[in-house]
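#struct-pred
JK: can someone run the complex with zinc ion? inputs below
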Amino acid sequence: MTGTPDFLQEAQKIKDEIIQLRRTIHQHPELGQTETETQKLVEAYLRKLGITTRRIAGTGVLGLLEGGKPGTTVGLRADMDALKIQERTGVPYASRRPGIMHACGHDCHTAGLLGAAKLLAAAKADVPGNVKFFFQPDEEGSGGAAPMIAAGGLENPQVTAMFGAHVNSGIPAGYVGMRPGKYYAASNPFDITIRGVGAHGAHPDLGVDAIAVACQAVGALQLCISRETDPVDAALISVCTFHAGNQRNALADEAVLTGIIRTLDPKTRIKTVAAVRRIVDGIAGSFGATAEINIHEGYPGLINDPAMTELARRSVGALLGEDKLFPITQPSLGTEDFGIFLEHVKGCFYQIGVANPAKTPTVSLHNSEFNVDEDALPILSAAHSQVAWDYLLSAI
Ligand SMILES: [Zn+2]
Ligand SMILES: [Zn+2]
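RT: done, structure tokens with the ligand placed:
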């Protein structure tokens, strides 16, 4: 074979195999950092294709396909972990593990990337460079991208661009969504403890009521968004737990709040984190309480490189037809640790439509009834292959 293969046609030929891979993974979901069976399945499949593999970041797998022609190295990434959700789809290939389910479609990502590995391996002699396959653990937990990078995943050979994709139940199957620039949010989870002074409920003057102070702080944090954040930027502060007090007639001496800060713009992230500290500290101090504030570094934002997004858009447009490109007009305040790869190399994270109400209920990711139109799986494999191929060609 010479020239660019017809990846869509080739993917359709192995559609049943990709679906079977997905169903096998779907039946045996594994939580982050415990993806040992998935790891073995991925390794075995890649090795059969003649792709060298290396275990990385605990339960991750890095595959390397060395093309027959000289060129640079492109990375393709799939995440492999499942969620603590009891599946309620009722399909015959439903999870066999109580309380664990692939409700975020990472089974599709893994099977789709294995399909891409097969398509690219079949064209190995003509591949103009190398393709590295990143099978990443633990996207839903503490993150698998950073450990893969720390273990040298992007080096030897050096990856110069990365692409990844997520299934999307808001996009019809057959369509692919792209968005350049800011796409997913940065996350800063926080734990705050406000300490007052306990007293009899009938004598608030003798204590410092931690609940009253914490309520002021929660309200003021919302003012931080409405009054200190650029109205056309997006940021949020959600206080999601509030625990205080254990006696009806005693002032709470402590209130514990947890929640998240989400921001799209890196500068807004720094500003909002500082504002949360300033506001909570200030309010606590003004009422004679103290605040212990721990704000953690969650995932960074995901920012798609405009040139790489355009490359992916053209690739997928040529593969499926321009009319199958789904415009994504709004960013998301969700998170995705693929953004960590994009802090190191240029690239693009895009969306594979999987919605088809005629086949499966359209529910959101992380829902116990989540399922996909499996006709989208060969599209995922073909899109990954085409985008990788076109990037390698563009870099010669
Ligand atoms: Zn998820
Ligand atoms: Zn996900």
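RT: quick notes.
The CA atoms of residues 180 and 306 lie 5 Å apart.
The chain has a mean pLDDT of 97.
JK: thanks, will look after standup
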